[in-house]
Predict the structure.
Amino acid sequence: MTSMPRDAADDAITERFIGFRELLFSVVYTMLGSVADTEDVLQEVWLAWAARHRSTDAEPVENARAYLVRVAANTALARRAELSRRRETYVGQWLPEPLVASDDDVSGGVERAESLSMALLVVLETLSPLERAAFVLHDVFGFGHPEVALILNRSPAAVRQLATRARRHVHARRPRQRAEPGVHAQVTERFAAAALGGDLPALLEVLAPEVTLWTDGGGKGPATSLRPVHGRAAVAALFMSVAETLPQGLDIHYRRAGDDPCALVFTGSSPLAVVVVDLASEGDRITSVYSITNPDKLTGIR
């Protein structure tokens, strides 16, 4: 049996990788909450994948999906240590980098988009790296405990314990029942119009009494507070003061960030902020506001 020409073999290797890239991106992004770091991890996975196939001594890969997810998950775990070190010197609050869909891509181009809500990603940041990996692989992407055990090089019993502990923590912080998508989008638009337009009565109408505001400017973009702001009166007062200082000519676009409707605030052609709100599981009141203004986290938005 003759082997394929080198170019044809390289093309086949590349096509197989591309076929799993969407899954790999989703897994790694959900583990890291950073688009830039996810792309770096996928580059490392690609290099490992290509090197494995070009090595004359390596065993053939029988299950490409399992192999690639294992390499991606473990590379992402190694990357988390670097992220943790960067967080130690980060200015102010840190929020996950928003994964904003383009105008003509309502899905955002990722698998299991329903898992990529900002609120869930924020909760996942409170887990240990292994708890997060076990939860993401099992609860979000549906890998069985034996598969996750092989991926993470842990026993099935240890993985089951990690996933159970993570699930308990996530469900305590994040309601299982979410607001209806149409209502979520409408409230997002009402909030953005009221907050940026300085309409205090309209803003108070959409905020829940226990609302919390998180802002992430990273010391580079406008941030309204270095710490979370709690309570309807405090959050509304802060947005009223911000509205008074906003420049003229701001544009608001409405798209999706992961699974959430979001408001994109542009000054000219440059993105100024991505704002995501989270609603109570029942009703149309906002319980959380996430505002990302760090320009390093907005570079992919057009």
Summary: The first strand starts at residue 207 and ends at 216. The first helix runs from residue 6 to 32.
